[in-house]
Amino acid sequence: MKSDMEQQSATMPHGKCKKQYPNVILPQRGRGFFGIGIEYPRTAANIGTLWRSAHIMQADFMFVIGQCYKSVRTDTLKSWKHVPLFEFDSFEHFHACLPKDAKLVGIELDARSVPLTTYRHPQRAVYLLGSERDGLSAEALEHCNDVVQIPGEYSLNVSAAGSIVLYDRLLKNGSFGEACGSVGRMESAGR
Ligand SMILES: C[S@@+](CC[C@H](N)C(=O)[O-])C[C@H]1O[C@@H](n2cnc3c(N)ncnc32)[C@H](O)[C@@H]1O
To answer: Which candidate among 44, 66, 88, 176 keeps its CA 20 to 30 Å from the CA of 128?
Structure first.
């Protein structure tokens, strides 16, 4: 008989144990594809944190514009092994390499931003976040098909903002299945 500790852990090929959580809900893959990245990120820690979220939320790729990434401790899942990272020298370079028929979605507190709450995510989306200090460049904003904002008086940490948008995509696209749908139905039925 296995102990609780043994049941919650799986032995990895390198001999280390990876914690397994009970009763987890695994997101289902939806239609289309999506990637997320940051324009001129200033800290590797934020890239690592966003990469970890991108991995868990099943993004197809990550990217950075104007920065090379060195592995950091905030990416505890070693997401670089699972979610490919593309590195671009400039916005122009990045824009020229966008996947066919993908929409570029800026994530920014901007005059033209629409609220994320009612936003319908494109099937093929590339989400772009701005730098910690300066936000998205005017060039990037000009080329975005849509710009979305997360409601709130102040700006969030860049990787937190990206994680919220990815979660919103999965939630609205039904990637959490019945586990979430039933909660929504119960609450509205009670009103
Ligand atoms: C710390 S913020 C940049 C703030 C910058 N100093 C400014 O005042 O514009 C870094 C990035 O996080 C994202 N962000 C933060 N809060 C956001 C929000 N409420 N809605 C949408 N994006 C947000 C944007 O991509 C932003 O460029």
So the answer is: 176
